[in-house]
Recover the amino acids of this structure.
């Protein structure tokens, strides 16, 4: 228990010396003390009074417990620390060395006005696992402005000779909404075109090479799907 600071004793406490002066041991306030048992706290408080042998009012004083009566400290339970395990290593899917996904795609902007809703088109239909919200996807991509086909970003130009695939969790908002919505249902090994209106991209906020209110066009290759 915690014994707080006490106020100086009064005459009612019976802790005065023969001249009626307040005991010096009670004049100074006590510091906080951590004591595990109430009995020990009571004994410590009474010891502070230290009354004179001539003080007749000793009926209220309780003797300190003998060695045989001393309370044992509370038992503590041993804590078992589980063995540490080595976390699994995440492997990044490499760009295929052959086949249609082994080369960077070329973007061709359709004729006509930019669409105001998300448009998806499978250029190559994959045969692997299906992408769902909550999955971690590994993709290659090329992104361009719809208005002039100017490329603003491509994973093929990152890292090594064939670029560095990009990993993200589908559906948690870590990418633009056009990706979160447009890649659901795509299969590994597939290549999909996304035409994304500003409302599902960067809206009225410019981003480096992307002007505000831009419609974007992407070609995305799905290389792998795993649980996030």
């Amino acid at each position: 228990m915690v014994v707080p600071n006490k106020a100086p004793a009064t005459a009612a406490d019976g802790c005065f010396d023969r001249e009626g002066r307040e005991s010096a041991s009670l004049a100074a306030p006590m510091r906080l003390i951590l004591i595990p048992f109430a009995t020990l706290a009571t004994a410590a408080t009474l010891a502070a009074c230290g009354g004179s042998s001539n003080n007749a009012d000793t009926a209220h004083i309780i003797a300190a417990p003998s060695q045989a009566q001393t309370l044992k400290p509370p038992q503590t339970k041993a804590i078992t620390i589980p063995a540490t395990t080595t976390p699994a290593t995440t492997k990044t899917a490499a760009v295929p060395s052959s086949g249609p996904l082994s080369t960077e795609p070329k973007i061709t902007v359709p004729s006509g006005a930019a669409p105001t809703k998300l448009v998806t088109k499978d250029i190559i239909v994959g045969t692997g696992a299906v992408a769902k919200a909550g999955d971690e996807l590994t993709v290659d991509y090329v992104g361009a402005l719809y208005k002039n086909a100017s490329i603003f970003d491509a994973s093929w130009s990152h890292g090594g000779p064939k670029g560095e695939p990009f990993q993200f969790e589908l559906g948690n908002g870590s990418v633009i909404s056009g990706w979160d919505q447009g890649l659901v249902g795509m299969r590994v090994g597939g290549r999909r075109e996304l035409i994304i209106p500003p409302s599902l991209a960067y809206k009225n906020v410019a981003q480096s090479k992307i002007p505000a209110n831009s419609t974007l066009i992407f070609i995305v290759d799905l290389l792998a799907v795993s649980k996030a």
